Structure formats: structure tokens, C-alpha cells
Amino acid sequence: MYNQYNILDLGNYPTNVRYTQRSRHRIPNGYRIQVLIYEREIICQTNYEFNGKVMYKVTWEEKDGKKCCVNSLRSASDAAKQFVQKITNAKGSTLSGVILFGLDLECIELRHENKKNILPINLKKKKPFSNLKSRSQKNKRLKKLALDINSNTKDLFDSHRFSNINLDSLKLNIQRQFIRIKFSNSNNELESQIQLDSIIHVCDNNLISREGYRQLSAVQPSLEREWHLAIQKKEINLIMENKIPIKNFNINLINEFSIIQENNENNSTIYLNENIEKIIINKDQIGNGSIRSLIRLLITLIPDLTEGNNPVLYNNNIIKIKLGGDGRQVGRYNHHVMLTVCILNEKDKVLSPKYQYCICLYPGTEKYESLTIAHNQIIEELTTLYNNGFTDENNNHWKIEFWFTGDWKYMALVLGINGLTSNYFCLWCDCHKNERWDTSKSWSNIGNTKGKVRTSLLPFLTPKYCIPDELHLMLRIVDVICLYPGTEKYESLTIAHNQIIEELTTLYNNGFTDENNNHWKIEFWFTGDWKYMALVLGINGLTSNYFCLWCDCHKNERWDTSKSWSNIGNTKGKVRTSLLPFLTPKYCIPDELHLMLRIVDVLLECFFLELMRDALAFDTITPQENISTREKIEITMQEIGIITFKFIPPEKKTKTAKWSWHTLMGPAKLKIIEKFPVSKFIIDQRGKDIENLWKDFYYLYCTMRRENLTEEDIIQFSQNACKWVKEFARPTKKTKTGKIEQEGLYQRTDITPYMHILAFHIPLFMQELLQQNLCLRWFTTSGIEKKNHEHVRLFFGGTTMGGGTEQTAAYQINSFENRQIYFRINKTPTSYSEKVLTAFDKINE
Description:
five-stranded antiparallel beta sheet; alpha/beta; 37% helix; disordered C terminus
């Protein structure tokens, strides 16, 4: 029945060799033999599995060319039985597996013995690996081992019917030293570059310093070396700087400060006079502001914004750009001011700091003088974009529409309006501070003509486009385009804006053209906290008479809801030139976050101070409850989920000494005004009225942040906001006999600028934004402030992120920003999947 055997591969006997069951013939590993049987040429082969079992395999080809295969882990006879049954279609057929596989052939044993006798002669020439001294000898031995392993695995892959498979790497443990052998082709530069980009992307996103990555790669040697990343990061920086140039400019701090002493031994510090503040600034950071071209930024982003199944922009769309800014202390003595833009067409994405783009950064504080210098750097480009839009690289023309927001101080500075405490404080109308309580008046967003004290830094912006920041609004009641070290001061902001104003003006007037020759129009919007907006717009501060960024309301008229103020701008509180002269009040949007924060601050302060009229009684245990009012408030705060709230005792406990309390974050303040039971602490109707006042503001703020509002919703909001301000300053009503009929709540003078814009300007902006298919929550500065916080952690947190480079922090931060855009336009992945199997684990079928 058997004509002949043809040994294709003799294989070898492993150390854990197995035997046939009865005849006790040794079974080799990697053994292959060709046999002619049943008029078929079949190939029988044996291979040892990881668990020590033997895989018996029989393959053949039928007359019609069909390839067939049977295999068994039980025995050679079981594989032979399956083979016979498959070709005869008859059950019960038997065939000796030992004979079929030729395991009983004497020649097989003899050839193995001859091979065994030959091997020791070759082995005697090789030293044990542990005796090799030089690194080159060890590497040579390992490479030879790798080649043998690679050649043997090809047969294993074929035997297990794998296709399109190759051995990528192998990890060996030799005398407790781990050695990783790579088999795959490492010349795939594109794949290697994408992998490096992904690592850099993750490090940037998670603020992992170079030293941190070095230590991590020391623990996990399979990670890419840090110097590989440094080379690739440098390459990315060069690519992006060609696309989006970064330019340096100097903030002229000599005009802002006077040097009273210089350390002769170490020129790294400068001491400043007491007229500003006693601070020390590193010399290599003074005047080192930097800007990025907004036009080039837009041209770079256009392909990403116009691609995909659901693109952000379509041809002929107006690009709505929100201008903003914020200052931050980046160390004990240093401050930075950042000017940002974001693209409102991206909707909710603008709430993330990732989509806030820095265009200017400089050292200093928020002052009109520095903001003027900063805006002078960008105003020409902003004006060009405002007037003409820009053309992209596809020759498509895009129109630009600018909007502006920020905290009150920033908006007032930029718009040149008086401060919050001035008579004509409002950024949007001519309301006097004594009229803030009067909700019978009507104020429109036509601008502040009485509080204008400076030239607006964004002269093309009308009050319509200056939107209050809802975050700051909430806090006070309850992108990055420029970065520089220092505080928010008009002088340093002026220097920073001088670096970008030309490009901003160009975008404003002409738009820009992207790389596909598509032209895009630009529409700028501006926001920030009040201080930043006031600095940029050249408006007086919050405490000035004509404080408002949007109208000429006097601070004594903030209470008067009977007046009507429109968003036409502040003409009476203008004290400086606007740093963004193309911005009208229409495009300067209040920051809803700051609005909430500041109003909640007032509500809490009024409530706590009422309970502290007698500070000693406030902390005295009452016999009825065996607990003091202070402790009762802290326990109630914990019950509603505010765990960190605590009162801070005064230095001297007297009847007039007031307790202070821990600062709260925005979510905590919202939870307090929504859930805190005021009526448990202030009895009778007054307590219920104050509790309702808190809840009513909470619902006003929730409405303000809604995305899908209707005209009816906005009209109702306007009525409710005026009603709320009127209720806040509700006077005491008495009968003719002098009996109190209804107790008042608070004084008209307690009406703050943020309450004024809540009642008079926020509804006007909500209507304007509804027409523009925008919503107020997209103008929050929370993303800018979070980005500022990330930069502080990354570049001023005591890390070695800079790697010892001579570049300024401002330049490094803008390079960091450029890399984020590189990762975005190249769609760099941040995760890869890898399946891990342990060879000797039991596999469930």
C-alpha cells in the first residue's frame, strides 16, 4: 500500500520529547514527510504546541485541485483515521498513524543519531552566551538566534493556517536582563513618525514633562527614547512655525515701572516700585511677548473645518470669531496676559480650552497701557480681517465677524470704558450707578457714551458684538491668540495688541485665503471677564460712575429698571483708546460665568453679613439647638454636598468683627443658591423671600445658558430679570400709620454692574445671538481660564518642560499651541490596541 517515503524535514527531538503510546517511538518537532497512499501524495507533519502537546497534521490535494487538511492533538492514529474517513466517506476505517507518519522507520532514528553525533562538533566551537565578553559578540549571537527563530516561525504560521502574518518582536529574559528583538521592518518612516507624534500628543495633552517621560521610559524600556521625541518635537515646531509664524515683541516696562534697585551680582531679577506692587520679574521674561498670525492660523485650520461628512464650515459661511483675554499670576511675582480667539461656528467645542487659540501672550498685568501695546501688534491684521475677510489656499473667500467677551475689567479696559465703581460703569449703555436698581427704565445695548475714558483697543467692535461672560456674571452674583508674562494692565496689553492688531485688522477687512484657494470671511466677537474687557475697550473700571461697557448708565441708576439701556456703547466712561478699534459694542459679549460668580458672591455676602450683625452671637451656642449659627450653616452646607465650606474666624472676636469664609468654585455656588434653605436661618416672610430670590436667579442663569431659546423665551427672560433686580432692591412698604406692610430686602446701592447687565444687556445679546444662530454659553471664558491654568502647570510648575532651552516661556507656550494644531490637522491618534495572550494559559474553546 505504501510506495515510498520522502523526508522533507527531519526536525529535532525537544527536551520534553513525547513518545507514541504503544511502540514508544520518539516524536520529533518540526518533522515533515511526504507519503504516496491511496493514489494521493500527502504530507504528514508534527509540531509541538506551547503546552507541550503535539499537533499531527495531514495535508493533500485532490484531483480537482482542492486542498484538504486534517489535524489532531490526540494522536497520529486519530489524524490517520480522520484522513481515511475523509477520502472514503466511510466510518470505522482505521489506519496506523505510526506507519502513516513513518515514525517507526529505522532510517529516521539513524539520521537523528547521525545529526546528534555531528551537532556536538559544531557546538564545541560556540562558547556559552554567558561567557561572551564583548557587546558585539553578544549582539552577533542574538542576531543569529533571531534569524533562526524567524525562519522556523514561517513554517509554524503555515501549519496553523495564518496568512499575512509576520513576527514583529520577541522579548527574552537572559539572566534577568530583558532583551527585545525586533523582526518587523523598521524602515517604515511614516508609521514611526505617526507613533512619535502620538506620544508627543499624549505628553502635551497630559502635561508630561521631558524629565517625567525620561523616568517613565527608564521603567518601561520598550517606550521610545526621549531624545527621539525631542527631535520630532523640534521638527513639528519648525513645520508649524512655517504655517503659523510666532513673532516676539517687547512690552516697554520702563514706562510702566521704575527700577529702584538691581542686583549687581545676579542680573536675573528686577525690583519694582511700590506705586505698582512689590514684585520681582525675571529679566529674561521682561518684555518677551509673542504673537501668532491669526490669518495663518485660520488658513491652517480651514481644511479641518471644511472636511468630513458634517463639516463645521461650508463655502460662503461667515466665520464668527470670538475675541477674549485673561490675565493670570504664574508665580509668586510674575503675571501673564493672554489674548485668545475661538471659532464660534464650532459651537459647544469652544467650551474646551483645546479650541481656544492663543494669538498674543505677554508678561504683565491687565492695564490699558500694556493692552494697547499688545493690541497694536495685532490690530492691523484684525482690521483687515474685519473689513475684507481672507482668501484660503483654495482661493475661497471667507468673511469674518468678530465678537468680544471677557470679565468686566478686561472688557472695560479694551473698550476704554470706566471701571465698575464709576458713575457710568456699563459697557453697553449710559446707565448711572445710582440707577442700577431701577428696572422701570429701559437700557439698550447702544454703548456707553458717558463712561468712555479711553480709545477702544478694538475700534471696529460695536456694543452689539461685546457679550458679557456668563461665568463671571454668575460668580459675582453668587482663544489663545496672544501670550505674555505679566499682569493685565492697559500698557502691557497695548504692546501685546500692537503685535497682532495689523493681522486682526486684515482678517476683519479682507478675510483670508486658505491653501486650497478658498476665501473666507471673518467675523470677530470679543469676551472676557469685566476687567479684561474694560482694559481692551478703554472703558472705566467697575467702580467708576460710567462703568458699563455697553451703555452710558450712571452707577446711581443701576437699580432703575424703568429705564431702557441699549448696547450702543459707553461714551461717558471712555478713558482710553480701545485696543480693538474695529469692535463695536454689538460684538463684545459679557462672560456669563463671571456674571454668575459675582452675583452669587453678593447674595452670599448679604446673607452672611445679616446673620453676623452680632459676630459674637453668630458663634454662640444657642440653648434651644445646642449648636451655633455658624456650625449650623457649615452642617447644612455639607448636607447639600458642599463639603469644603468653612468659616474663617476674625483675628479678634468682637461684636463688630466679621467672619470670612472659604472661596467656592462655580458649581458649588450654583448648588448653594439652588438648594440652601435660607428660611431656616432667617425667619418669617423675609427668609422665604430671600430663598426665592436665590432660586429665581438660579433659574435665570440656567435659562441664560440654554442653547435652543425662542423669541418668547428671551422676552420672558428679560421680564424675569428686571423683576429679579427690582425684587432684590425692594424698598420697605409702610402704611399711613407707619406700620411695616412689606419689609424691604436690600439697598439700591447694593445693585452691582453685573446685575445691571443681567437685566438690561443680556436679553439684548440673547436676541442678537439668536439671530446669528449663536448662544451665550459659547462666549464663556471658562475655556480661556482653564487653558491659562494648564499653561501655568506646564511651564511654571517647577518642571523641566523647557528642557533647558533659551526660548522664552511665551514662545514655548505658542510652540505648544502650534503643536496642538499640528495634531488636529494631521488627526494624530492617541491610542493603539494590542492583544496580549499568555502561552500556557488554558484557552476556553
